[in-house]
Amino acid sequence: xxxxxxxxxxxxxxxxxxxxxxxxxxxxxxxxxxxxxxxxxxxxxxxxxxxxxxxxxxxxxxxxxxxxxxxxxxxxxxxxxxxxxxxxxxxxxxxxxxxxxxxxxxxxxxxxxxxxxxxxxxxxxxxxxxxxxxxxxxxxxxxxxxxxxxxxxxxxxxxxxxxxxxxxxxxxxxxxxxxxxxxxxxxxxxxxxxxxxxxxxxxxxxxxxxxxxxxxxxxxxxxxxxxxxxxxxxxxxxxxxxxxxx
Length: 246
What we know:
By secondary structure, the protein is mainly alpha-helical.
């Protein structure tokens, strides 16, 4: 989102609604990889970029710290937090349980319209692999399409499960481990993306057949594989990741 657009979209009220909007803006940019792990967040720059004063920015950073997305270091400031190995293990264990539950329910209750949207997302995964292999699109556009496919696929499963509160719980987990880290783990390796696309295709097949037990196991396995890959990626980045400034 550009600076002018952000300024136009912000709430007029300079109160808690504005702080909440700032939290959403910053969290989305972190999740999408626009603000990467290790980036130092300068209050003055963020205030200017988003068209607000420093006070609501300061409060928004405090909320992001409480949510686990940002860490505040004494005499240094705030930076986007790189999740720990324990964070990843715990978050992806929960992802597996929740997605597995949703997949089993979805296999029983999914509508034809929802199934078509799920299939369209699976096709987009395959196209992403081809785009990366042939280099017909830039890396940023390939990443955007993979992010779109992944979001659509898993949100359809959650929606079709019929549990109205599940999306909120899953979104809370995404705040602990930004989605863009998954792309960092997958994005430069066509073989990894092929495996990821194949796993989504298998999940789609199980749901299409109405096999809830298979859908549950495949989604649990999918979450476990993603967590293992992220742990290796975070280990490679290491605790001494180089900071940027925002």
